[in-house]
Structure formats: C-alpha cells, structure tokens
Amino acid sequence: MTRPPDAPGWWPLLRAEAQPLLQRPLVWLTVALLLGIVWADGFRPPPLPVTLTCVAAVLLTACALGRAPRVASRLLLLCVFLLGGALHAWRITPNPDVRALPTQLKLPELEAHVCSVERRAPWGQSVVLDLKPLVRGRAHCSLPAEPLVHGGDVLALEDVTLTCPGPRGHGVKREDMARRGIHIEGRAETIAEVRAGQPWRAGLEERLERWRERLLDVLTRATPGATPETYASLLASMVYGMHAAPVPDGIEALFRGSGTIHLLVASGSQVTIIAFSLIFLVRGTRRVLPLWGLVVVTAGLLVFALLAGLGASINRAVAMAVVLLGTFAWGRRYDLPTALAASALLLSLLDTGTVYDVGAQLTYGGTIGVYLAWPPGLGAQRSGLRSVLLAAGLGSVGAWLLTTPVIIQHYNSLVLGGLLANLVAVPLAALLLYLGLVAIGAGLVWLPLAVPLCAVARTLLDVMLWSNTFFASLPLAVLGPIHLWWPWFVLWYALAAALFLILRSAPLRQRVLAVDARWAVAAGVAVLGVALLWAVAVQLPADRLRVHVLDVGAGQCVLVEAPAGKVLIDAGADPIPGQAEEILRRRVLPFLALRHVRALEAIVISHAHEDHCNLAAPLMESVPTRRLLLGPSAGAEAGWLQMLQSARAEGITTETFVPGSRMRLGAHTWLEALGPSAAASFRDDAVNNGSLVLRLAHQQTVMLFPGDIAAEGEERLLHYYPQPGALHADVLLAPHHGSGGSCTEAFLQAVSPRDVIVSCAGDDRSPPERTLQRFAKLGLQVWRTDVNGGVTVTSDGRTATVQGSARRGP
C-alpha cells in the first residue's frame, strides 16, 4: 500500500512524538543521574577522581553559562552524570577503616547503634547496626529473637563475629550490601542490654507496631464468618501492605502465581488513591488547594506512609504526591513525567541504591507503563464504563510490558496469567482499599459500624481469591524457569517502545490500521505461533523436582535437581582414611555424569563435620559451582579448610546461610534455612545440634533436611516452631543418620512425614533398633542407603514418590 504524497514519513512522526519529552529538562537530568549511577556500579571507579572530575565539570559549566548557553546545558548533563557516579562510587567503596579490618573479627562484647530493623522471625532478628566508635561503617547483623530491638536503640552485644566480605562476597552478596552502603556482616549470640539511644524513634516504632496490631484486631473482630483472622489480615494488607500485616504463606503463593502480588505490597497505588481522595475532599470544586488543605493532605499521607512502612514504592509515591500538592496549591497543571522524574531524582540523590531496588524498578516501571499505554485525548472520546474498562486494559498491558523483564531477571519466571488476573483484581483492590479504610475508622469509633463493611469486603475478597485461583490454574499461566541473555531484554523494550509509539500517535495508529488485513493477520499468526513455540520450549523441562540421596556410606550427599538449577545439600562421605576418595571416584562423580550435571547452582554445607563436607573441595574442582553456602563453622577440620581454599581458588562466591535465608530454585521451588537460632546454646554436642535445618518446598510438597541435630536440637526447633504444621514435611531425611540420640517421637510427630530416608553405612553404623521402632510405631516408610542404595524422591508439585536404586542386604 503506497503512502499519499502529503502524508508525513515515519521519522517526522517519531520526532513529533518525542518533542514533548525533549521539552522536559528534569526528565533528562534524571536520566543522566541514573546513567551515572549504573556506570559507577558496573565499572567501580575510584570515588575521589570521579568527584574531582565532577567539580571541574561544574566549574566549566558555570563559565559557559553566560557565553554559550547551549553548550552549558549539555555540560550540565555531564555534571549530573558525574554526580551520580561520584555518589554511588562513595557508597559502594568501603572506607579505609573497614578495609583495615581483618577478614573475620571476633569480639567478646560490642556496643552498637541500631539504624534499622529489617526482619523479625522466630529464630532471630536482622538489623543494620552503626558500629561507631569501633569503626566508621555499618553492618548487617543477625541477633537473637529476644529481647526485641527497635530503630534508635543502643545495644550491648556479646560473642560477636564480624565478617568483612572478600572480593567475591561472603554472607549477604557483596553487591547488594555495597549498594546499601553496608560492607560488614555480623552475628551476635547474646543481647546483653538494650538502651533507648533515640527515645523518640524507638517510641515511634513501638507505637506504630501497636497501632498496626490494634487496626488488625479491629478488622478481625468485625469480620463475620469462619477464619476471620485470614480475611482480616488480607484486607489489612490491601490497605497498608503485607509487610505490616502478614498474610498466610498459601495466600501469598496464590497471589504470586497469579501475578497479583503487587496488590499485597504497600505501594504507590494506595498512596495515589488516598492522595487524590483527600485532595478531592479538601479542595472540592476550587481550582487552588488552600494552605490548610495542603497541611491536612500532607499529614494524612505521612501517617499512612509511616503505618505502611517506608520503602521504595511508598517513597516514590509520596514524593510524587508532594509535587502534585504543590501544583494544586499554586494552581499549576500537573505533569506526570515531570513529577515522576522529580521523585526519582530526589530518591536517587538520597540513596543511589534505589536504582537497584526491585520494588523501585517495579513501581516506576508500572507507573511509566500505565502512562505510556494511555493515548492522549482518548479519554475525552469515551465515557462511562467503556472508558474505565479501556483504561484498565491498556494500563495493565503497559505495566505488564515494562515490569515483565524485571520479574524475569529477578524471579526467572513469566506470569502470563497476570494480564487477565489484574483486570479483575485491580478494580477490586481499589474498592477494598476504600472499604478497609472506612471499616478501620468506623471500627475505632464503634465496632458494630464496621461489621457490614467487613462483610462486603469478605465477599469481594472471596471473588478475588477465586479469580486468582482460576487464572493461576490456566495452562502456561506461569512460565519458568527462564534465563534470558541481555540482548533479549533490549529487544523486548525496543518492541515495547514501538507499541507505545503506535498507541500514543494517532497518525501512526492510522498508518498501522491501513496495512492490508491479510498481511496483518499473517504477521499476527506468525508472532502468536513463535510465542507459543517459545512457551512450550520454556516448559519442556517438566516442572518437577528430583532429590537424590546418594549412597556415600556414613556420610551425607544429596543432589537436588530443581527447575532452575542443581544444588548439593552437603557433600561428605565416610570419613575413614582413603574411603572418601574412593566413594567420590566410583559413586559420586559417575552419578553426576549420569544425571548430566554440568554445573551446580550451589553447594550447601549444614555444618563443619568431615562426613558432611570432605567431598566439597574436589567436587568444586571437578564441577563448575556458582555459590558455596555455609552453615556454622564450629568444629571445623581439614575438609572444611580445604573446601574454603578450593572455593577461593575457583573464584566461587562464599556465603553464610543463616535462618531466614532463602534460595529460589524455580517459580514455585524454594530452599530455606529454618535453624539454628543465633541465640541457641547447646549443652550437649553443640556442633551437631548447630547444624543448618533446611526446608525444600516445591509447590505443595515439602522435604526437610535437619543435618545432624540430636534430641536437644530437635527440642529447640520445636520451641521456635510451635505452630501445628509449621515443621510438616512429606519426606524427612533422618537427622544425624538416624542415630539413637536423634529422631525423638515429639519431633517425628511434628514433622509427620510419610517417608523417612536414612543416609547411613551398614554393620554397627546403621540406625539402632529403638530408632527403627519409633519409625514403625508412627507408620513411616523407611528408606536406607545401606539397604536400598541411592534413594530418589520425585515431586510433581502435588505428591512426592520415593524409590531406591538397589536392594541389598544390610
């Protein structure tokens, strides 16, 4: 089809669409700052030369300002670029005090100031500490679960271990820590004293926690029907986020699987809705927002932000809301790109690590996608329900296009069902936000007023849960595991940019619509066919989990074949001299070759005994390994030291795997550490009882790997997880090779497995009769490597089947 003579070409149309963007200088300044941060993070330049270059560029810009304004404007972009690079370089580079510390420093006592509390769990607390006056720097530290600490407290700690990450990291990844300005990792066994160093801050955190509990209690008491706690926590998470109002793990997994997890996170959507609602209530039909209204709306937003907990998305939305309030207060027109750029510029100047925060990437990507997907002037052509549906559809597509590469990069999965699920869930979430806010206010005044509101909210939540369940169960609803090379991401965003241009430009839309229908249908069928073939190819590796407990005698070596990679849990064999080398040569390496194991995602070592780690060094030298995840180092012997030396020589990232640590092995597969607690002190056999306790979950099936814990360790684990079903697993690897001092009846009842596997040697090193009697009493199917050979567990996500490789005499 030929173009009419007077029709503009493609390039003029593209320039016409880009012209409004060129007229927003704040957008370009923000882009320059972000590029500077990315450059500094990738190339790690020395901070001082970058800073001096930035100062020289500023002086040069000032000189050119009066004589050559156009040159000065370009130099200004260079200044901002260098400013971003300098700020980030100073942040990710340890200061001389930190570099002077030894690799590991043990202190009998330490006094430190709590900067922030990041996580609390039954096994302990994760906090960021300011280590002055010991050293100018901050540390990410694991503490016992009690006593509770708050931001601003001053702690007196005992038995402290500080670790300075090496070139390739140790503990929490060096890159992630450095982007937050943290270069030290720590662990304290005892909190001797807690003092309120900043009483106002500690008091504020305590009051906020009490208010969150009170609001959740109001919703719980006002919600009719069975299990009101579940619905109340879900409604509260719709209002101020699941981090402030935790939801059950099953519901969180459902929202993740349906691509609607963003609705349970306090984000810009809540802030935006609340801001516009407050502005409408205060301003009414007036053009200008009065000063008292500005104060009221700002105070309301700050209260909500504190209640939800400050984070990247909340900070972004509050910053944009402040810009919005300023435009209304001065009677100016609100410009979303400028407001978005202003918030990004402000947050990145305050914290350059915001650029690499997943929440920030998702919230900015979603907001930009919604804006770009809505064609200018289209809203004026339509009204009523059609306009709302069109806005929801285009906004969902736009947000999905810009956030999907981020999700693939961080979670190695693609949620296709999220496109459809969000069409139902997003409008419901907006209604539930209003219902939740009004119900909370009414319940605080008089509880019966909140009951009908909570009843309606419960019905809407049921609809949302049903919708999410339906869309999550559709074929190809979640594709994974997906590992894409960076050119694919560039191609994705290039195609997304082309689509946005077509949506926003009326001439381009007309040009596309004028294409011969036959060519359009053929192109659409081709694209759909390629997409389906790619989706099937991605799903070809069945979403199954296989776990092989190898026959290594009186040791332990477990190969996990997960959708997103292969992992070894422990790598030890019978520690008899010469026996380990024979087992490695004749059993372990041939088995890995038979299973086509060309690389390992990680090797996880539960504790430092030889029978759990003496194969790790030669294995890392034979099989490329990405990470080495370590449990406690107490009782370390030659095998442990050789393992660390091999990891250093092979350039393998070494990390400490502590309770609360999680490793994603697929879209619905996780390996997490449940114990030991930082506060645990064992009277008997402290090394074995201090073993890492690992939980491997694949959809609805669970395996438990308790290392070598004995009765005391099992008792401590039951103490930290008293809830019924908290330790349940379908398959249990018997603790301490099924020894008589482990596998207590209380522990077995709490785990309530169907199958139990014992990694053991024969003769006098097989499980004693009393242990086997406990298994028989509880009706457990027992699998032993000395009898059944290697044992394999296969899970399809719903059930787990176990089988042995041989049948031998004990």
Can you tell me about this structure?
The chain has 810 residues and is an alpha/beta fold. The chain is 52% helix and 17% strand. It has 30 helices and 22 strands. The strands form four sheets. The chain has an eight-stranded mixed sheet with strand order 13-12-11-10-9-8-21-22. A seven-stranded mixed sheet has the order 14-15-16-17-18-19-20. It has a five-stranded mixed beta barrel with strand order 1-2-3-5-4. A hairpin with a 7-residue loop joins strand 2 and strand 3. Helix 3 packs antiparallel against helix 4, helix 11 runs antiparallel to helix 12 and helix 16 packs antiparallel against helix 19. It is globular. About 1% of the residues have low confidence.
